[in-house]
Amino acid sequence: MAKITASVYTSHVPAIGAAIDTGKTTDPYWVPLFKGYEPSRSWMEASKPDVIFLVYNDHATAFSLEMIPTFAIGCAAEFKPADEGYGPRPVPTVIGHPELASHIAQSVIQDDFDLTIVNKMDVDHGLTVPLNLLCGSPDAWPCPVIPFAVNVVQYPVPSGRRCYNLGKAIRKAIESYDEALKVQIWGTGGMSHQLQGPRAGLINREWDNAWLDTLIADPEAAAAVPHIDYVREAGSEGIELVMWLIARGAMDDVAGGPAPKLAHRFYHVPASNTGVGHLILENQ
Amino acid sequence: MALDKPYKDVPGTTIFDADQSRKGYHLNQFCMSLMKADNRARFKADERAYLDEWLMTEDQKQAVLARDLNRCIALGGNIYFLAKIGATDGKSFQQMAGSMTGMSEEQYRDMMIKGGRSVEGNRYIGEDGDAQAHHQPQGGKKD
C-alpha cells in the first residue's frame, strides 16, 4: 500500500524563482535564504519519494475569474510551467501521476470534499518554486508530482479547519492505494506577507514563529485559527497558510499514530515582501 | 441578515471578496489577457486602444493608465491579476507592492530588509500605525 512518509512546508515567493532563473542565488541578499534550504536538499536526496502531492495556490494563472475552484486536483499526465507575464520559467515540465491522482479524487469526493478534477493546467511559481527549493534545478524533477490547487485568491477561502480535515481524507485515500508508493505531501505559501494597499510589506516574525510551534505540536489548535487572525496578524496574503494545514492533517499523529519527527525548521525575513517559513516533518 | 465581514476594519487593506470580484471582473480579465506575449505587445503599442477592447469603466481604464494600483484595487482589481500589468512593465512584485505604500522604491526595500512593516498599530482602523490613512500621503483606503 502507498504510504505518506513525510510532509514538507515552505513559502513559495516568486522572487525566489526569479533569483534562481537569473543566477542571483549567491548575491548577499539571497545567500541566507538558500543556505536555509541546504539541509532540505540533502534530506530530499536521502528521502526521495515516489510521488509528491503538492498543495499550492494558483495566482490568477490557470484560473482566471472565469472559474474559481476551491480545491482542484491535477489528474493530467503532465503540467507545463506557465507564462505568468514574464515568459514561462525555465524549469522542467511537471510529470503527473494520473492513476494515483484519480484514485485520490475518487476517495476524497466520496468523503464529502467536492474536488474539481483538472485534466489540463499550467502550473505557476506556487508549485515550481518549492520544487526548486527542495530539488535544485535539475533537467527533470526527481519524481511525479500531483498538483493540488487551493483558492486563496478570492475570499472566502476554505477555513483552516476544512483544510485540516481534507488532509485527513487525503491521507486515507493515499493509504488505500494498492501500489507500494512512498508519497510526500507538501503544503506551500505564506508566511506573513501583504502585497496590496498601504499596509503592504507587513511581516510578523513573532506570530509566524508561534504559528510554526503550534502547527508542529498542536495542529488541532492551528486548524482552529480563524481567517481574520491571518489577515490581521500575518497580512492579507498570509491567509495562504491554510494550505499548510492540508499537509499537516495528512500526518500519522492526526490519525492516532506517533508524533512526527521535526527534520528541519527554518525561518527568514525577507524574501522580497515575505516572511519565509519552512518545515520538514517525518512520519515515524 | 448581513454576512459577517470582520476584515473591513483592517487598515490599508482591501479583501478581494465576491463584491470586489464582481466590480473588478472586466479589469481583472483584461489583466489576465496580458499573460500572452502577443497581447502584451499590443497593449504596449497602444494602451488606450487595447483597454477600449474591454468592458471596463472609464475609472478603471484611467487607474490602469496611471498605474495607480491602490485605485485599481478600490475598483475591484486583485493584486495577483494586477501583477500582470507590472510584469508587462518589467516590474517586480516588490516594486508593485511598494508603489501602494506612499514610499519610494528604496524606502520600501529598506523597510523589508529591516524586517518589514510592523503589525503594531496596524491591526485595526483607528490605531496609530504607519499604514493608517492619516499617515499615508494618498489617504489610505479608498472606496
Automatic annotation (TrEMBL), chain A:
Pfam families: LigB (PF02900). Keywords: Dioxygenase, Oxidoreductase. One of its GO terms (molecular function) is protocatechuate 4,5-dioxygenase activity. It comes from the Bacteria. Residues 8-276 form the Extradiol ring-cleavage dioxygenase class III enzyme subunit B domain. The keyword Oxidoreductase applies. CDD domains: PCA_45_Dioxygenase_B. NCBIfam families: PRK13364.1 (NF009901), PRK13365.1 (NF009902), PRK13366.1 (NF009903). This is Protocatechuate 3,4-dioxygenase. It comes from Zoogloea dura.
Automatic annotation (TrEMBL), chain B:
One of its GO terms (molecular function) is protocatechuate 4,5-dioxygenase activity. Pfam families: LigA. It comes from the Bacteria. Gene3D superfamilies: Dioxygenase LigAB, LigA subunit. InterPro entries: LigA_sf, PCA_LigA, Xdiol_dOase_LigA. The keyword Electron transport does not apply. CDD domains: PCA_45_Doxase_A. Its EC number is 1.13.11.8. Signal peptide: none annotated. Residues 27-112 form the Extradiol ring-cleavage dioxygenase LigAB LigA subunit domain. Residues 120-143 are annotated as: Disordered. This is Protocatechuate 4,5-dioxygenase subunit alpha. It comes from Zoogloea dura.
